Amino acid sequence: MAAPTDEHLVSEGEMAKLIPTLPLETRYPRFPLRRLSGFWLPEFVLPGVAAAHARFDPRPDDVVLASFPKSGTTWLKALAFATMHRDRHPAAGHPLRRGSPHECVKFLEVSFALAGNKEDDDVFASLPSPRVLATHLPYHLLPDRVGRVVYVCRDPKDAFVSGWLFTHKAMADKQVAPPPHTLEEAFELFCEGRCMCGPQWRHVLGYWEASRRWPEDTNTNKVLFLRYEEMLLDPAGNVRRLAEFLGHPFSREEEAAGTVDAVVDLCSIHSLKKATANVGGATTTELGVRHGSFFRKGKAGGWRDHLTPEMAARLDAVVAQALHGSGLTFGAVACKDDSAS
């Protein structure tokens, strides 16, 4: 696939004219995809990309949580929100005990896309600082002057399987017929990079390279690069890393009081599943997907229940070839089940 271009650096009006001319992929279920600047993005999101570049006004203390879909997004949202706002929200009545992480932390490009032309200003302008936002956009499609970015990556085999299963749940939530193609056909598309925000490995690589440029290059965004599998193995240690990066480290008093473990417990898949918004089917996201559909097993290596050894070897080879020489690898790690994806 060609290297990223500057197609995204167009006005909102120009984006509306550009969209019908972009390569189209309709075999991916849920959304038709268009290839913008080398990546396949949901068609409905593209106006939001242009709007975010035009209207979003970053603040120095903003934090943007980035990920390829189904790579630990929900868990990272919960952990970052709970860590960043632990002084504002006591554990007993915490928003995460009532609502979904996706209600607490909104997606940048989706929010602008859904606002449409009805909102001429920054849709996040009314949020108090520090703001915690999220995105599935590749690194080079982020708006300018975004400061701190936290990226979580996941083994592409697990990301694929989790995405496939989530698609079935999401379509059932919206009372839409299941995907017309098989797991094997979806796998072929994934290996070709023809999936939402794909190719997955290039999505990860963009943030990986940015994380390695910082802090040597002071002109680049600060990027903390996390691995989902390592977070599962040591959630407390990674929460401490997250807090340090966010400029809000845990004090000795908080450590002694067990605040780190309290954040980990609050954000565990078992706790989040019990939140009012995540129980039953009444509460949905802006796109009509039940909040509860975002929680499954949250483990590493679950792809073994769905992919044949031959399929796994093929995807590993595709990724290895694409990442050759980058220093980035995906290692297989056996982890306990205590998270959300």
UniProtKB/TrEMBL annotation:
GO molecular function: sulfotransferase activity
InterPro entries: P-loop_NTPase, Sulfotransferase_dom
A Pfam family this chain is assigned to: Sulfotransfer_1
Keywords associated with the record: Transferase
Family annotation (Gene3D superfamilies): P-loop containing nucleotide triphosphate hydrolases
EC number(s) from the headed UniProt entry: 2.8.2.-
Name of the featured protein: Sulfotransferase
Originating gene: ga21977
